[in-house]
Amino acid sequence: MDNSNYRIVELIQRYFAEDLDAAEREELEKWLATHPEDREMFEKIREGKALEAREVAWDKMDRVKALRQFEKKVGYRKRSLIAHVMKYAAVIMIPLLGVLAWNLMREVKQVNLPVSLAIVPGASKAVLILEDGEEVALESMEGDRLDISQSGVRVQSMGSGIVYSDTVKKRSGKSFNRLNTPRGGEYNVILADGTRVYLNAASSLKYPVVFDEKERTVYLSGEAYFDVAKDVKRPFYVITDVTKLEVYGTSFNVNTRYGNGVQTVLVSGSIGVEGRMIKRVYRVEPSELIEFSSDGEFVKREKVDVDPYVAWRYGQFMFENESLEHIMNTLSLWYDVDVFYSNESVKKHRFTGHMKKYEDIDTILDAISKIMGVTFIIKDKTITVME
Fold first, then answer.
1. 92-117: per-residue pLDDT in tens?
2. 160 φ/ψ angles, rounded to the nearest 5 degrees
3. Mind listing the domains of the chain with CATH numbers?
């Protein structure tokens, strides 16, 4: 797709976000005047006639969480936040502006997407490894409720997760459980201290059945979002192969597989992060990202918009100028597929777009294909990306 078409897509998106100045509105109006078919579709969208899918999706969302998640995205002007969110939602809730980019993308390559029933979105499933080594599959807890006791602690299933009830008077953190999610799986656990952990696909969390009296330590591989219960007497530690995080009560996301290192993004509160090779604790503030290399060396600390990093926790994918390789790595874990590339250069294409995690993969790939001009070939559970 040539640069002029990218420009029009940008103008259309910003029009619905009410972020166009007078000159840009005139530019968009001139383009629509010379494209009557596109103007007809544009008017339908503006009048709300093509947004039924948006309305259904929006009705299912928790509005309070949605406001928090997209507050920064819609803060273009000092107007009603509700009005901004609803207008911006008209854009973001349609996967990747697929409707807004309609006929504009007609000249790009068509994606080869045969229907594949084998490729489905991820779901709530995991394997719990108990202190005696027994493995319990958790993907079918609806019909077979989990209710067991370990070291005096009761473990019960709760919808898409499990909860540990700490009723032990004498604490000992020597007995551990491990929660593993497969590719195409996610799960959450409320630990014995009340801390809630959301595990993303292909991740593992090792933790004591009951924490001791001095500290609370867990071990993470993969990606997880933490809501740590406040306890000033017992600091909470998250240990990865590369970093050690110290927390007293806060919310943050840890990803041990971003590129070649570990990224931590703080949503609220305060944490200290120490790299394996550096005996220095870096204090991280809300809306900051800190990254360490796979060798445990400090890479960077910077202010970020936290939404793209935690969107998976709220059922969304938000890619902000990400490489196609990163995007496909994310999709491969969630849809449990293998990805191959026709050449190295195709991996470097960059893309911005928002979509629902539970969307059919053909819808997502079709949108990416139209925007980026790449082709996806699907065979069984393998996707080949071609320019």
1. 343 334 444 444 444 433 444 444 44
2. -100, 25
3. 3-105 (no CATH), 123-308 (2.60.120.1440), 312-386 (3.55.50.30)
Handedness of CA 126, 132, 133, 134 (dihedral sign): negative
pLDDT digits (tens, 9 = 90+) for 217-267: 999 999 999 999 999 889 999 999 999 999 978 999 999 987 778 999 999
Which tokens go with 90? 């008209």
Angle CA 144–360–109, to nearest 5: 160
Closest among 344, 353, 350, 356 to 372, alpha carbons compared: 350
Q: DSSP letter string over 242-266? A: SEEEEESS-EEEEEEEETTEEEEEE
Cβ-Cβ contacts under 8 Å for 79 (sequence gap 6 or more): none
User: How much helix, strand and coil, in percent to the nearest 5, is found in the chain?
Assistant: 30, 35, 40
Query: What is the distance between the alpha carbons of residues 213 and 46, in angstroms, rounded to a whole number?
Result: 59
DSSP structure class, residue 230: P
**CA-angle at 256, arms to 158 and 122, nearest 5°:** 45
SS3 (DSSP) at 89:
helix
Spatial neighbors of 67 by CB under 8 A, at least 6 apart, are 81, 82, 85
- Phi, psi for 105 (deg, rounded to 5): -95, 15
- Please list the residues that pair with 353 across neighbouring strands: 319
What DSSP designation does 78 have? S
- What does the DSSP 8-state code read for residue 229? P
Is 184 within 8 Å of 122 (Cβ atoms)?
yes
Residue 244 CB burial class (10 angstroms; 0-12, 13-18, ≥19):
middle
Reported residue count of the chain is 387
